[in-house]
Write a structure and sequence with these properties.
alpha/beta; eight-stranded mixed sheet; globular
């Protein structure tokens, strides 16, 4: 018998005869060391060693009823005693689904079915898993609706479904039954950011609009969403692997971030995390990957006790050592024969650009099969918006505030993507959640790549960037168009030279200095990007003229773009 097995067996039946104390005095005092005992005696000196064991299934059921129930009633910290799960920092998966945010906002999106084309952009860009889509064969849908006794309710449910070319006409032309497509809003998860409305309008469809919450609104939305859940999943034949946004139709594998997180309204980070989980889960299944998260916004809104929005295992060590922590997880997995499981590290620019940069560099040089997603908000978002080395020159942030003597941050921005490219045999990408296909392709290729991978993602932070709740995707696109944050993919397996490995596909006007939109004669520059965000507002005079510092920031962004063009052989 192995030593550990022997120890565990002995621990099942503590022997008190050799201890110089009365066991009855300590029968329920599990935290006290046995008087005069050694460490070994202390470890086995429990009256009931079963306190150290945990029936996970039983604990999850109890947690969801007792703990979640108490917190939903607002009495959790007052009424609940400590328990073995809390002592181990365990929170069951997906408990965020039981959190209700319906009281947060005065408005909620309304779906206008006849204007919808089924592009799934609204579903993809929602940071809270509050708006979901489904494609159901027409005969099956009608059969389910016919089970509803109330004709008025039937009409309300039927109004959420539409025939689209994508899901109805195309399958019908191929000899299959057409599917009706529906969009449904979960009123308990929607925070009213209106991001879905904005991205739909940006595409010219206008199939969503915000409406005020009246007395009958929430009951009506709950009615529709309950039907959405009861009608069953979208059949696989209606989910196209070529249309990457369709991945979120695969509920069991792709909807692995259930919402209920305490992130800000419209949070750009949460959207990126949802999409990462969707792309990985869709291909490999939720049982074949896990996450190591660096302390930051993602761990705070992702584990505000007792609500966990993740349906995959994740752990948090410290702010500065998530990549090193992941190296230990990867090594242990490999020992167990789990080489094919995917491991992702999450962290902001504070954790990856700055405090944990040494740990990140060591991991990238290790050759280990670990993927990193940097949630680049250009500030330390979680601690109040302090400047980081990812911040732009001139940015007004804590520790680099705009003042009479020092007008914002004076340093140039660090380019972590370029630095990562110089590590041996590393896959590197820079992308945004607003560029859906580019983002998904980067994540899927990182998962395929056998070695370290880093994906740097521009994530709009509404309070620190000074932008509206519904403009996360719009400002991410503007960051790319203005050369503030260029897209690229660097794949070591694409060739022997940097020129062969580096692709700038996805950027507009790849060979030009600046991008000029159609039907315009004015290029979009970094100044235009800065003008749209409050973090740069103090750099403009009353006539809208930019400061010298902001002009220097623009020159830096153009120089960075030129550098990428040169490396990619476009300049």
């Amino acid at each position: 018998m192995a030593e550990t097995e022997k120890h565990e067996t002995e621990a099942q039946e503590p022997v008190f005869s050799s201890l110089d104390f009365e066991p009855e005095l300590y029968a329920h005092d599990f935290g006290r060391k046995s008087p005069g005992g050694t460490k070994e005696i202390h470890e086995i000196g429990f009256r009931d060693a079963s306190v150290l064991t945990l029936d996970v299934d039983q604990y999850v059921a109890d947690f969801n009823e007792r703990v979640i129930g108490a917190y939903n009633r607002g009495v959790g910290p007052v009424e609940l005693p400590a328990d073995v799960g809390v002592a181990r920092s365990l929170v069951p998966p997906g408990t965020g689904a039981l959190r209700d945010f319906s009281y947060i906002a005065p408005e909620i999106p309304e779906f206008i079915a006849e204007k919808c084309v089924g592009c799934m952009t609204c579903v993809t860009e929602c940071p809270d898993t509050a708006i979901l889509g489904k494609a159901i064969p027409e005969s099956r849908l009608e059969a389910e609706i016919s089970k509803i006794g109330d004709p008025e309710e039937q009409g309300r449910i039927r109004a959420n479904w539409v025939r689209t070319r994508k899901y109805y006409d195309v399958p019908a032309r191929k000899g299959r039954e057409g599917a009706m497509f529906g969009i449904f809003i979960d009123p308990t998860k929607c925070k009213g950011c209106a991001e879905c409305v904005q991205v739909c309008a940006d595409l010219g469809y206008h199939a969503l609009k915000m409406i005020p919450k009246e007395s009958d609104t929430l009951p009506r939305y709950r009615e529709s969403f309950n039907f959405f859940r009861s009608v069953g999943p979208t059949p696989k034949e209606y989910i196209s692997e070529k249309a990457l946004a369709d991945m979120m139709l695969a509920e069991a594998n792709a909807l692995l971030y259930v919402g209920g997180a305490g992130s800000c309204m419209g949070c750009g980070e949460a959207t990126a995390i949802r999409m990462l989980l969707a792309a990985t889960g869709f291909v490999y299944g939720p049982e074949n990957f896990a996450i190591v998260a660096a302390t930051g916004c993602n761990t705070v809104y992702g584990s505000t006790y007792p609500y966990n929005p993740f349906l995959v295992p994740w752990t948090n060590s410290l702010f500065e050592n998530a990549p090193a922590d992941a190296m230990g997880v990867r090594a242990r997995w490999n020992q167990m024969g789990w080489q094919d499981k995917k491991l992702w590290v999450l962290g902001g620019d504070g954790a990856m650009y700055d405090i944990g940069f040494q740990s990140l560099s060591r991991m990238l040089a290790s050759g280990m099969d670990i993927n990193v997603m940097v949630l680049d908000t250009q500030v330390y978002s979680n601690t109040g918006g302090q400047a980081s080395t990812a911040s732009y020159t001139g940015q007004d942030a804590k520790m680099a505030s705009f003042g009479r003597e020092v007008p914002g941050k004076q340093e140039l921005r660090k380019e972590i993507g370029l630095i990562a490219m110089m590590h041996p045999n590393c896959f590197v990408a820079q992308t945004t959640a607003a560029h859906i296909n580019h983002f998904y392709k980067a994540v899927m290729r990182a998962n395929e790549f056998k070695g370290p991978a880093l994906i740097n993602v521009y994530t709009t932070c509404q309070p620190e960037h000074g932008v509206a709740d519904d403009l996360s995707a719009a400002h991410a696109k503007l960051a790319v168009e203005s050369r503030a944050f260029p897209l690229f993919i660097y794949d070591p397996e694409a060739g022997d030279t940097i020129r062969e490995r580096l692709s700038l596909v996805g950027n507009p006007a790849q060979k030009e200095d600046w991008y000029t939109p159609p039907r315009s004669d004015k290029p979009i520059t970094f100044i235009d990007f800065a003008r749209a965000e409050a973090r740069f507002a103090k750099h403009f005079d009353r006539d809208g003229n930019p400061s010298e510092v902001l002009l220097r920031a623009q020159a830096d962004r153009l120089a960075n773009w030129h550098r990428l063009q040169e490396l990619a052989g476009l300049r």
